[in-house]
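Example 9 (inverse folding). The structure is encoded as follows.
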């Protein structure tokens, strides 16, 4: 499996198109620490007057980033350093924090607006793919990060539903 992972990474890097480099480097930058997702969450929370949406996005972003960092400390897989575009990264590779935060935040945001689901997940997928294109991760790192992000967001959404149901009803006297 690891051998196939390395071959796919080499294939993607070998087929870069120079005129797209700026695009994928930019996607990685805006995806750093989930900043683009926090901006999107803040804008939508203001427009829709739903402050809980921003709280959910920040929580998903922070938790996914924290868990991805713990995963990197546990697994300690080296990055494909030879082929990195953009800013060099010296942390471990597995799982991808960009993928984790992107998919966690896209899931939270799409739960609030299902009609935005396609563009949100497209942005998350593009940010995740940028990590492969830029040579910062192997495919399994990105896949694991995406799954981690989906799990984090799903857990947070379920926790919110449980919390809402457990609140006592307001009495009207």
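The amino acid assigned to each position is listed next.
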């Amino acid at each position: 499996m690891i051998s196939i992972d390395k071959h796919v990474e080499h294939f993607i890097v070998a087929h870069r198109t120079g005129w797209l480099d700026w695009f994928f480097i930019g996607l990685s930058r805006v995806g750093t620490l989930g900043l683009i997702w926090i901006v999107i969450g803040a804008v939508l929370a203001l427009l829709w007057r739903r402050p809980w949406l921003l709280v959910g996005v920040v929580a998903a972003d922070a938790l996914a980033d924290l868990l991805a960092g713990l995963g990197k400390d546990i697994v300690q897989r080296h990055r494909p350093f030879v082929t990195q575009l953009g800013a060099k990264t010296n942390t471990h590779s597995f799982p991808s924090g960009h993928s984790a935060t992107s998919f966690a935040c896209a899931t939270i945001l799409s739960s609030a607006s299902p009609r935005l689901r396609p563009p949100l997940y497209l942005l998350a997928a593009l940010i995740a793919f940028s990590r492969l294109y830029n040579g910062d991760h192997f495919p399994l790192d990105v896949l694991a990060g995406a799954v981690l992000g989906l799990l984090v967001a799903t857990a947070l959404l379920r926790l919110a539903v449980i919390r809402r149901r457990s609140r006592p009803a307001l009495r009207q006297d």
